[in-house]
């Protein structure tokens, strides 16, 4: 969901505790599912005009509620610093912001799963003439159709339908489809090349999102995916297995 | 087990709390085992003339006991609505009902596991003359024999033996075998094609169940399986691996 | 460890609660590790002249402490029945007894893991002249060497060194090696064919154990393994992967 | 981090309870992740001049806090014995010490994971002229580049930057790079052959560490890895899969 007006103080206190705990709980779940092992992966939740962000470079299954950053969505000013002073904000924050601004996302997950990395290497295809040529600098896409799990994903991400009112924030989500992806639809996810530093991904990811407004996520090759959810992870895992036995990912023939 | 007469009120209160909690606990276990990741999968339990059903389209590992629907088995009238008013009944309900009506099922699990989807694509064979030709519109079957885990499955499902007394509900389970499947038996599960909406699966699944009264489950291609249990999931996983190394699924030769 | 003299009453009470809980806890762990999914797998613990046995045909992750059977090691007389009267003793009991009598086992685990079943089908070799021909009716063996995990296994099982004093119970464990298996040693596990009923496995398993006194376990093809532990499960998993990429299991060359 | 001066008594009491609990908690996590199944794997933490070490040959997911050994880093004198008198110190201790002395490690993990063993057999290459020939007796290396997960690893291990002040303890870490490994860097990990007893690994591992001062870990073929962390385990898993589909591990071309 998009940013809401600031709620009264008591609600903030209650919501604050809730969303801090939720960030910790979901990070632990990301760890267990393999999306955030080591110190990789991360997530944020936007609620009540406050952005709750997991700290950077720490084991995601061990975050304390008091160590979740609370920052302003615009400018990332720290509203409430973490209890542990040495912690730093996730380097993914500018990338999370793209999903918030361009797609109206209320929560963004970044996954480092083996499935996402393997799919990015073995289950992608080059962009060609039939795609209208290379757009937004994207030379490869992940593409899959005819799987029930597609129905757990939304065109442009879960909150894209709300993105129209965010157009002043730079989003062009209004140009794409909204609502749930269907069983017979073809999901296309742009794949961008990785860079040594996450901040260097921002312009490429923004271009990819603008060029592929329907995509609920952007894959970063040999790195992971921004805009992950469990349905997408399922599809990455399945696609890797399907390619491993030589099956086509689109068409539903087999 | 089949529907029982309505118990006295006190028992209902106790049983109600128990079965609500059990739905939540089993849904969490389905999530952990990979059968209900994302918002996929689901289950229901029939007890004391009440059907306990997981809500639709929510993460199955996070269902609150108060959010389990209680509906009437016939007509799905909501007896007790969920605490969260925005929740909706599982779209699987008409499919769960087929298992209740035709097989006397007391609980039905729907799995979206990678194993079930992979097995449906890579470990099935076309129906031929030796099968008596195409029956119930089923053109493919999953077939396996000579595995100890078969003994955890029952002809027509665990409760099929009770299905005789349900014949007025439209079931023809009486035509099939009952009891545990044996080590040397050949399990045959019909595979039907998926459709954009779950309601469109009803007639095909009913026809498949009638044509294959011995089958404890029906697979839906590129979607999952209705009538899943852990023994069946094990067989899907194993069958996919066996086919991956070129082994036959029937005969027990290797 | 082998059977000990009956301890004083207070110790029995304390130990009883402990070993009942331990059976439940270890069964849950077997479930989590994949060794006892569905209603498969099982285990028993021999302590203080009492055999603590998981009930049969129930989900192993859900056993209540009060539902663990306590039986006499000889004759399986039920000393304390389970709280739930409808439960039945594990059909594996006569097979567990072989390990107790012939190998002095103090605990026996039966695993149904995918790894054990796959290894039994894809990582075994026929018995030949170099093995001294077919002994005890065993026509295939699982064989592996040069892996550190071997050091977690013992010749004839963990308690085989105590088996000498059990010879009046029919064991001939005295004929084999004892102590930990070494890194450079070759583990050989006999593989017997499965039968429709577990009781039909007894004579074949007894013959295999007598013919292979050094083996800490017996594999049952397309079924699982008796005498499992996590080190052995690791080796089954690894062996299946090694064979999957064409590696030899013995010699340590690669 | 390196050894610190002995802290005041009260701090020791608090820290002692904390680090004992942490060893148990991390060992359980190693078990769950597959790095310490059976009785394999292990770990130690160096804090306040005291070395907290998991006991040897016991299931790592079941260690009691009172059973963690506290020993002196030099000489391994037992400062506080475990509550269970029969427990013995990890045979890995001399190998853990190498990482403490040569790399300033504040904690060392030894993993027995399937991924580490498979990578050591299938994702290594022989050392050649381009490597400057065989150094420290190391004839094979694991080598990988262009993966985001590399950024969770440090040249010479996390604490190598502190190793300069440890040179009187025999370390030559000063000769290598320090800081985080980059996305485009090539990680090279020496692989040594396994031996029947862990004590026999000491000289080979010391030589490998001296010859490869940049390496954050040493792999032991058919055994596991010393200096493991979850990022490294991820790379072993991924590398095994990449080699399984014929991909190069270095260069980032695919």
Fold blueprint:
4 copies of one chain form a homotetramer.
Chain A: H1 9-33, E1 42-47, E2 50-53, E3 69-71, E4 78-80, H2 93-103, E5 107-111, H3 114-122, E6 124-126, E7 140-145, E8 186-192, H4 202-211, E9 218-220, E10 224-226, H5 230-244
Parallel strand pairs in A: 8-9
Antiparallel strand pairs in A: 1-2, 1-5, 2-3, 3-4, 5-10, 6-7, 7-8, 9-10
Helix pairs in contact in A: 2-4, 3-5
Number of domains of chain A: 2
Q: How confident overall, as mean pLDDT of chain A?
A: 89
The largest sheet of chain A is: 10 strands, mixed
Work out the helix count of chain A: 5
Query: How helical, in percent, are the residues of chain A?
Result: 25-40%
* CATH C-level category of the largest domain in chain A: Alpha Beta
Could you say which structural class the secondary elements and strand pairing of chain A correspond to? alpha+beta
Q: Which superfamily, in CATH terms, is the homologous superfamily of the largest domain in chain A? A: Class II aldolase/adducin N-terminal domain
CATH third-tier fold name of the largest domain in chain A:
L-fuculose-1-phosphate Aldolase
User: Kindly, what is the distance between the CA atoms of the first and last residues of chain A, rounded to a whole number of angstroms?
Assistant: 37 Å
How much of the residues of chain A is beta strand, in percent? 15-25%
**Count of beta strands of chain A:** 10
- From the spread of the alpha carbons, the general shape of chain A counts as globular
CATH architecture of the largest domain in chain A: 3-Layer(aba) Sandwich
Biggest interface between chains: A-B, 23 and 20 residues
Strand order of the largest sheet of chain A: 4-3-2-1-5-10-9-8-7-6
Q: What is the oligomeric state here?
A: homotetramer
Rg value of chain A? 18 Å
Please provide the ordered H/E string of secondary-structure elements of chain A.
Answer: HEEEEHEHEEEHEEH
GO molecular function (chains A, B, C, D): methylthioribulose 1-phosphate dehydratase activity
Organism (chains A, B, C, D): Porphyra umbilicalis
Domain Class II aldolase/adducin N-terminal (chains A, B, C, D): 21-240
Pfam families (chains A, B, C, D): Aldolase_II
């Amino acid at each position: 969901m998009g940013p809401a007006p600031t709620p009264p103080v008591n609600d903030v206190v209650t919501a604050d505790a809730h969303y801090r705990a939720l960030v910790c709980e979901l990070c632990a779940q990301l760890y267990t599912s393999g999306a955030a092992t080591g110190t990789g992966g991360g997530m944020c939740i936007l609620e009540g005009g406050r952005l709750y962000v997991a700290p950077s470079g720490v084991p995601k299954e061990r975050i304390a509620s008091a160590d979740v950053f609370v920052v302003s969505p615009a400018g990332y000013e720290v509203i409430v610093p973490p209890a542990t002073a040495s912690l730093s904000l996730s380097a993914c924050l500018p990338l999370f912001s793209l999903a918030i601004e361009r797609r109206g996302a209320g929560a963004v997950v970044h996954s480092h799963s083996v499935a996402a990395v393997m799919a990015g290497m073995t289950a992608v295809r080059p962009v060609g003439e039939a795609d209208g040529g290379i757009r937004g600098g994207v030379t490869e896409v992940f593409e899959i159709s005819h799987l029930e799990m597609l129905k757990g994903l939304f065109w442009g991400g879960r909150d894209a339908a709300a993105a129209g009112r965010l157009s002043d924030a730079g989003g062009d989500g209004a140009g794409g489809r909204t609502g749930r992806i269907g069983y017979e639809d073809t999901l296309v996810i742009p794949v961008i090349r990785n860079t040594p530093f996450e901040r260097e991904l921002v312009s490429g990811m923004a271009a990819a999102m603008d060029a592929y407004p329907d995509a609920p996520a952007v894959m970063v090759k040999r790195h992971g995916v921004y805009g992950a959810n469990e349905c997408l992870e399922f599809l990455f895992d399945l696609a890797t297995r399907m390619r491993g036995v030589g099956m086509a990912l689109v068409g539903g023939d087999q």
